[in-house]
Design goal:
By secondary structure, this protein is α+β, with helices and mostly antiparallel strands. It is built from nine helices and four strands; from the N terminus they run E-H-E-H-E-E-H-H-H-H-H-H-H. It is 53% helix and 8% strand. Strands 2-1-3-4 form a four-stranded mixed β-sheet. Strand 1 (2-7), helix 1 (13-25) and strand 2 (29-34) form a beta-alpha-beta unit. The longest helix is centred in the last third of the chain and has 21 residues, at 129-149.
Length: 208
Amino acid sequence: MLELVIGSKRWSSWSLRPWLALKRTGQPFHERLIALYQADGATRAQILPHSPSGRVPALKTGSIVIPESLAICEYLAEAFPEARLWPEDPDLRALGRAAASEMHAGFRALRLECPMDLARPVEAVPLSDDALADIARVRALWTDLLARSGGPFLLGEWSNADAFFAPVATRFRTYAVDPGSPVLAAYMERLLNWPDFREWEAAGRLET
């Protein structure tokens, strides 16, 4: 059976992404949760036996360990094509992969100034110009992909691209960021009301 090693659901946006993708496949898997931010290096010490990078998430397939969220999502798309984690249309697929890669590698100011915290009360915070630029770029990506695909998700059906932007939707909600248009607000609500995300969120809100 597949095993997914994840961090605290309240905070671990990196873990959320492949967890959503794996849930979408419908495959049974074992979830190993390791609490983040433990004192004296305890978190890393608990992760290392399961992930050579010392970080979460990591997918254990029985023969290999994949210790990186984007690589996990790509592996799942190839291993379980019936889940359609990427669309058949090659142009949409390429744009979706580009968007997921950009999310994976960029948006540093938004990450630092608006960390994912599913139990934090909704409250706006002052944002730097860099964070505002990141928000503008997210809006542009969402607008373009929704227009190209026709929705209701970024590439039409729910996909890995939506898994990568689900944590952004939580950040926008938590820090009272205007999504930018009614279309984007509706998309954000679809992400936040996706049944698998709601399952993750409910567990995250119970964590201390």
